[in-house]
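Worked example 3. Consider a protein that binds pyridoxal-5'-phosphate.
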Amino acid sequence: MNVPLLDLKGQYQKIKDEILASVHRVFEEQQFILGSPVKLLEEEIAGYCGCKHAVGVSSGTDALLISLMAFEIRPGDRILTSPYTFFATAGSIARLGGIPVFVDIDAESFNLSPDKLGEAIDRLEKKEKNHLKGIMPIHLFGQCADMAPILEIASSHGLFVIEDAAQAIGSEYLGRRAGSIGDVGCFSFFPSKNLGAFGDGGIVTTDSDELFSKLQIFRVHGASPKYYHQVIGGNFRLDAVQAAVVSVKLKHLDQWTRRRQENASKYRSFFKNEGLEDRITLPHEKGSRHIYNQFVIIAEGKRDGLQRFLKEAGIGTEIYYPVPLHLQKCFSYLGHRQGDFPLSEYAAENSLALPIYPELSDDQLSYVVKMIRKFYR
Ligand SMILES: *Cc1c(COP(=O)(O)O)cnc(C)c1O
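Given these inputs, the predicted complex is written out as structure tokens:
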């Protein structure tokens, strides 16, 4: 049996007519830059996330970058974030000359640990504290970070909060949607995200009128009006064609999310039935709306062997992420070493993402678990 990590072909076949009709309208209009499809998607996403505004941008990475630009990050500014995430979170800080201040994760959720966040701030020297500007928590794998204590710490130190919600569209924390909890939320329409475009794209959400207008200006080279540049921005625009695709897919998102959640529950019962619960640690769901962009298990000490075994059995898996950011070559100038963030290092060494996409059949899910049991025998 073949179980790829992700297969978008089945999803496309089901919505093909709607998608083709939607992009066809854009082709007929020949208005490819921003315009009504982008504006429509911005309104839809703002509504979906429970925010006042949304600004379509060129990628999830650019969503992060433009948000930091809107907060006027300058060289030497410090931003607290997790080392266990996709590169873009810390990469965007460093590209503006900012310094990512890494804080280790919570052992169960893999998200930024609020306790360690407080400790990290206490450890900063006074000079560093003066340059501390914000916090960038990541809602990793589709589950919100523990935002209440993070917001409390942010407000007591006067810090902004940018949610990296690239993997978490529609996920909730205490009844609030990802992207509506901090000052801004950053989403990605990268094809493997739960709401993917047919190429690159992203969006920023916010309740702030001031940030909304800044984001719109930074998106078009800082110009307002056209050719009168107030600030140095960039070309961070979302294509109309991508917006037209994403608008169609958004209508199906809740149904797909339900399927992902059902797949997660099925995995849980299959793992239990196979008696694998003491060998494998399953993802902890902490009472929020987890949207399962990824279903990530911990296979302590055996991850690489398990991945090879599953590959032989026709099962696709992925390691998110094999090297925590503090140990990346490009960040060696920060002076970190192995052991600095042990829980992030542990997750990087032992975690494995299993297929979880909506179109998987029960047979495929049970096959994955059966093969894992075979490996452990
Ligand atoms: C995918 C992702 C991004 C970047 O999104 P792109 O659209 O690929 O630029 C940023 N942060 C996280 C956590 C992601 O998963």
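Take a moment to read the result before moving on. The chain has twelve helices and eleven strands. The pocket of pyridoxal-5'-phosphate is lined by residues 59-61, 85-86, 88-89, 138, 164, 166-167, 188, 190, 200, 202 (CB under 6 Å).
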